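stage 2 :: seqdesign
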């Protein structure tokens, strides 16, 4: 599948790389198909490119690179998606959305209360909301990367 994006120009995405989000992302419920694009080699950041809206892409990262004690109970994601199997045996990955203010990369933050849980085998994902006061939707990343 070829798609013309505003950030990357025309890109080709293999069908097996397409991620379906039946519930969309918070604030973008009608956007259902995404793919993950590596930002740069050896970068901890990726682009979560929407295939339904080529102008829409989110920066995402593995939260444990910046907050090793981060905890996500995958049960709400498993229940919402109807994935069968033991949570610790399912092929799940977790990403958080990163916000980088224009011209101020040192002020970048991650949304730790709204992780995206991805089932790599089914190529399905869901964004869940964690009810944990210890986490913020604006967790500073720059100081954590040092």
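stage 2 :: out
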């Amino acid at each position: 599948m070829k798609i013309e994006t505003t950030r990357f120009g025309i890109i080709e995405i293999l069908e097996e790389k397409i991620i379906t989000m039946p519930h969309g992302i918070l604030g973008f419920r009608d956007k259902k198909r995404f793919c993950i694009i590596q930002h740069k080699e050896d970068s901890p950041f990726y682009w979560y490119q929407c295939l339904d809206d080529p102008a829409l892409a989110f920066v995402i990262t593995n939260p444990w690179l910046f907050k090793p004690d981060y905890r996500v109970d995958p049960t709400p994601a498993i229940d919402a998606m109807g994935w069968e199997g033991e949570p610790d045996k399912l092929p799940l990955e977790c990403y958080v959305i990163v916000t980088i203010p224009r011209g101020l990369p040192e002020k970048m933050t991650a949304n730790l209360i709204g992780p995206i849980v991805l089932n790599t085998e089914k190529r399905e994902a869901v964004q869940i909301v964690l009810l944990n006061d210890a986490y913020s939707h604006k967790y500073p990343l720059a100081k954590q990367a040092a």
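stage 3 :: structure notes
- The radius of gyration is 15 Å.
- The helical segments are 75-81, 142-145.
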